[in-house]
TrEMBL record:
Bias (Basic and acidic residues): 76-90, 119-128, 149-161
GO biological process, one term: vacuolar proton-transporting V-type ATPase complex assembly
Domain of life: Eukaryota
TM region positions: 20-41, 48-66
Species the sequence originates in: Cladonia borealis
Keywords annotated in UniProt: Membrane, Transmembrane, Transmembrane helix
Assigned GO CC terms: endoplasmic reticulum membrane
Chain positions covered by the region annotation Disordered: 76-161
Pfam families in alphabetical order: Pkr1
UniProt protein name: Uncharacterized protein
Entry annotated with the keyword Transmembrane helix: yes
Length: 161
């Protein structure tokens, strides 16, 4: 029991969900349900039934969240192991990739890699060629407004008066 209490105290300062916190939470909710049942029997008040349902819902939600958190942590660990395994394969395969063309190397795999890279779009390839930006002098009247255009608008307004 003393070991559990020291584990519980230390788990408060440990990030994440620890088994001692889960046990303490479940024991606390079970004790609360028991107290609510005793109060219901003693008073016959419907309030304790409602409180019992609320307590049960919160208890279930906390346990559900803990299981989802553990499942997410497990998936993260598996993903990390998979990434580490792939990195290990990439490191081993970097020397023997099969794409070398000198000395009668495996050229068919090199052709596959070349055809995949040809399918990639570069920003300058996407529109055929890079477009030149227009300077202020090249802009049409609809693209940019100038002071002279505002002067024309003001003159038109003055004529209406």
């Amino acid at each position: 029991m003393a070991n559990f209490l020291s584990d519980l105290f230390n788990s408060i300062f440990t990030p994440g969900v620890t088994p001692s916190i889960i046990i303490a939470t479940n024991v606390s909710f079970a004790a609360l349900q028991l107290v609510l049942l005793v109060l219901l029997v003693l008073t016959y008040s419907v309030h304790f039934v409602v409180l019992s349902f609320l307590c049960a819902g919160l208890w279930w939600a906390i346990n559900w969240f803990v299981t989802e958190l553990e499942a997410a942590n497990q998936k993260e660990k598996e993903g990390k192991q998979l990434r580490d395994a792939r990195r290990g394969q990439d490191d081993q395969g970097a020397d023997d990739s099969g794409t070398e063309t000198e000395g009668g190397g495996n050229q068919s795999e090199g052709a596959v890699v070349a055809s995949k890279s040809e399918g990639l779009l570069r920003p300058d390839d996407a529109r055929g060629a890079l477009r030149k930006r227009r300077s202020l002098g090249e802009a049409s009247s609809g693209d940019l407004s100038t002071d002279s255009e505002w002067d024309k608008v003001e003159e038109a307004g003055d004529m209406d008066k």
